């Protein structure tokens, strides 16, 4: 079993993780007509907004309750009510996703009670808008937990409870935060290829995919509809992707009775095969010819690329599920995980990461552990360690702000895994160094001992050759 090493430093050096409220806001951005609202100070929202804008290169609808010193002392209920009413009046959203920050969580505010009072008092003004609360304190967990808490809150707050008649061929997909826009889009196409109708929650592939609307939109202009969330109990099956999506799937099962299957990763031949086999079982349809062809392409890519992966030492820093996703990919290709750093020890998936130990820490820990490795795998903030160590960096996760198109990068199923094989192989080839004479001949400078006496077998073979 993998050893999980706790953080021992009193300060973070070059932070790795993003906070829970940011993860929850990202999940709410995957719902159509939504506005995430961070309940706390303006600074918390501004920092999250900067990261989201730099990563997606898009305008992001993110609001704040703007608590000041007085509200911090007396309570933020009035700020919360005012913010909700202003958003409703100005943007008319279908969903307001409230994400708590450390300010109100530390103070111990009853945000759920405050929202209940606001709904009751302002029922007529707030008609047509769902208000969902996700408790996401900055001081606990990370982006992964924030995303999962927001999805759980939407299921608990919007989905109609009770078992209902199942709609044949309709399934729910609960993707992890680490799936890109391209991943979710490809996921939908794969599901539809089996004749199934997917309801994806959250669906950032149609809200953060880089399209430009023909008029100014003050909310998200794509994503899962509130009505689809409300009717989740009518789906035939649920597929959750990533360990952190287990709780949302369990809540959906508890509220509606919908059965679920959890897949830990869709990257790699094994993970892709599991997903495709599951779709074939649910749909009762054979695997399409196009999918079989993509699988054959991946097999060929594995044969072509494994020469470049064999024996390479990899250093990865990422959220738990993304760490597992890429660690298993590299190990399956013949590489070794020499350093593994993550953001939190709250996920059970860390016990399955194929390495001796996982360090809970920051990018400073990664830099210390990655000396002598062949590749760094983390987000854009790892660029500093890459430059200092002289080791190439493969950018994954959030945020990626110094490269274009990170959200359109495919990383799952047969096609995505094939693309990863090519990408990493090309990185290794581009950073290959010509070996020195000393590396080619490690015995060049050895001390020459006295001439050994030749064995009878040596003299016999030598005599045989001269006789010939």
UniProtKB/TrEMBL annotation:
Alphabetized PROSITE patterns for the sequence: NITROGENASE_1_1 (PS00699)
Keyword annotations: Nitrogen fixation
Nitrogenase/oxidoreductase component domain location is 19-428
Metabolic or biological pathway, per its Swiss-Prot or TrEMBL entry: Cofactor biosynthesis; Fe-Mo cofactor biosynthesis
The record's CDD domains line, in alphabetical order, gives: Nitrogenase_NifN_1
Compositional bias (Basic and acidic residues) spans? 441-450
Q: What is the purpose of this protein?
A: This protein may play a role in the biosynthesis of the prosthetic group of nitrogenase (FeMo cofactor).
The record's family statement is: Belongs to the NifD/NifK/NifE/NifN family.
UniProt protein name: Nitrogenase iron-molybdenum cofactor biosynthesis protein NifN
Q: Taxonomic lineage of this organism?
A: Bacteria, Pseudomonadati, Pseudomonadota, Alphaproteobacteria, Hyphomicrobiales
């Amino acid at each position: 079993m993998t050893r999980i090493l706790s953080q021992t430093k009193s300060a973070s050096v070059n932070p790795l993780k993003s906070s829970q409220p940011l993860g929850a806001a990202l999940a709410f951005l995957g719902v159509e007509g939504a506005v995430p609202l961070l309940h706390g100070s303006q600074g918390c929202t501004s920092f999250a907004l900067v990261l989201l804008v730099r990563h997606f290169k898009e305008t992001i609808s993110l609001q704040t309750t703007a608590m000041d010193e007085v509200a911090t002392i007396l309570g933020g209920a009035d700020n919360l009510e005012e913010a909700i009413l202003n958003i409703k009046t100005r943007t008319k959203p279908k969903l307001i996703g409230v994400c708590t920050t450390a300010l109100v969580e530390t103070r111990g505010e009853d945000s759920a009670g405050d929202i209940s009072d606001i709904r009751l008092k302002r029922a007529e003004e707030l008609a047509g808008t769902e208000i969902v609360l996700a408790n996401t304190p900055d001081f606990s967990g990370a982006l992964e937990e924030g995303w999962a808490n927001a999805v759980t809150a939407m299921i608990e707050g919007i989905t109609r409870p009770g078992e209902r008649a199942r709609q044949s061929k309709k399934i729910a997909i609960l993707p992890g935060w680490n799936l890109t826009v391209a991943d979710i889009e490809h996921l939908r196409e794969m599901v539809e290829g089996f004749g199934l109708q997917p309801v994806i929650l959250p669906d950032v592939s149609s809200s953060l995919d880089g399209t430009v609307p023909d008029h100014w939109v003050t909310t998200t202009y794509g994503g899962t509809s509130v009505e689809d969330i409300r009717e989740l109990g009518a789906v035939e099956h649920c597929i959750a992707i990533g360990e952190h999506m287990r709780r949302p799937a369990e809540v959906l099962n508890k509220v509606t009775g919908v059965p679920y299957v959890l897949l830990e990763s869709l990257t790699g031949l094994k993970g892709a095969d599991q997903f495709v086999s599951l779709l074939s079982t649910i749909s009762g349809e054979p695997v399409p010819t196009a999918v079989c062809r993509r699988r054959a392409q991946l097999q060929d890519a594995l044969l072509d690329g494994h020469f470049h992966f064999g024996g390479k030492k990899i250093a990865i820093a990422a959220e738990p599920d993304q760490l597992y996703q890429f660690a298993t990919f590299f190990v399956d290709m013949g590489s070794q995980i020499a350093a593994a750093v993550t953001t939190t020890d709250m996920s059970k998936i860390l016990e399955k990461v194929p390495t001796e130990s996982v360090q809970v820490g920051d990018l400073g820990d990664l830099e210390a552990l990655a000396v002598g490795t062949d590749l760094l795998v983390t987000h854009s903030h790892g660029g500093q360690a890459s430059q200092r160590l002289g080791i190439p960096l493969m950018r994954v996760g959030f945020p990626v702000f110094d490269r274009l198109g990170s959200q359109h990068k495919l990383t799952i199923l047969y096609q995505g895994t094939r693309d990863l094989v090519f990408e990493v192989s090309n990185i290794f080839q581009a950073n290959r160094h010509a070996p020195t004479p000393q590396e080619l001949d490690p015995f060049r400078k050895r001390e020459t001992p006295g001439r050994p006496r030749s064995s009878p077998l040596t003299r016999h073979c030598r005599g045989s050759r001269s006789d010939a």
